[in-house]
Amino acid sequence: MILALIFLLVDILYGIKVSEVNISFFDKNNTQAMRGFWCIIVMFVHVPASYQNTIQDLIGCFGFIGVTFFFLTSAYGVTMSLDKNSNSIKNFWRKRLPKLLIVSWTIDVFFYLVRTVLYREYVNPINLIYVDDWVKWLLGCLFALWVSNKLLKKTLYWKVSTCVIVVLWSLLVYYLVKIGVFTHTAWTTECYGFVWGIILGTIRPYFLKYFSDRWSRKWIISLLVSLVLGVLYLKFKWLPFAGDYLLKILLGIAITMFVLIANTRISFGNKINMFLGEISFEIYLVHGYVFNIFEKYYEWNNSSVFIMMSIITTVMCSYIIHLIDVRLIRAATRIINV
After folding, report:
1. Which of 42, 61, 115, 257 is deepest in the core (most CB within 10 A)?
2. Tens digits of per-residue pLDDT, 256-279?
3. Nearest to 39 by CA among 260, 282, 319, 253
4. For residue 95, which phi and psi values (nearest 5 degrees)?
């Protein structure tokens, strides 16, 4: 597990470049590099209970920030695209649905074959069109944005409308979870990343200009705020709504701000996190399957070995699936655009 911590530090710190103003602030390379870091963090939080340990639990505490970050980058990219070319809304679903659904279904088929061939475990074929719950949440956020844009043409209006819908949906699901109506995994606080992504995409130049000035002071303040909120969250996260909702959202904002302020001066990117970032979506969807197979069919005497072997296997499988996905998505895109 010490090696895991070292790897994470190397993953995010190796190859960083510091400048007075990072003109590539939150561009494609920087976001890809950070996705490569956060997708590994997310894996640690989903380790089966019987194989968890202290260091894994410490790393996993930040998993919800990783999910928030994925929502943020999705909304940020869409916002920047629509601000640059409002007519791109016409190809909104043709551009996004193939990427989201083909990856999900390819992974379903891949592990259906693995279980059938290796373990003679015949899964219900309906599972071949299963879509991960997180993908459904992302699709829901994208749908809110698409509807808002279609109904409210003015830029400010559709952005505000989307944010309001996401917030109201989050509050509704949180309430339904509390009363036992909604029992699935719910990203009621993490989906706020979609709101932050819209806001960041809108104020990007002002954000960069403001936080580049007296950068170190503002970065340290954001770190201190994150630490204070982190301690408060650990102490009061059991409190309904105030602790497990509002405080968690505030902590998510603080840590996200810490990362974004860092990026106004620091450029991230090396071969490791760029590679992981390229397959981060696959990693996010694959690791649950790998954990399930390893836990079900093998006995491990050491939780750290279980975790490291799961991570390595997940990355390998994700890369293979990614190579397949790229070709399938290209073919689907050509067919759709005919």
Report:
1. 42
2. 999 999 999 999 999 999 999 999
3. 282
4. -85, -30
| Residue pair 218/261 in contact by the 8 Å Cβ criterion | yes
Question: By C-alpha distance, which of 262, 249, 266, 97 is closest to 187?
Answer: 249
- Three-state DSSP state, 314: helix
Q: What angle do CA 279, 271, 38 make, to 5 degrees?
A: 50
pLDDT-derived band at 333, boundaries 50, 70, 90: confident
Cα–Cα nearest to 110, from 310, 320, 260, 252: 320
- Helix/strand/coil for 17: strand
**Rounded to 5°, angle at Cα 265 from 198 and 45:** 60
Compute the distance between CA of residue 3 and CA of residue 312 in angstroms, rounded to an integer: 13
For residues 60 and 286, give the distance between their C-alpha atoms in angstroms, rounded to a whole number. Answer: 17
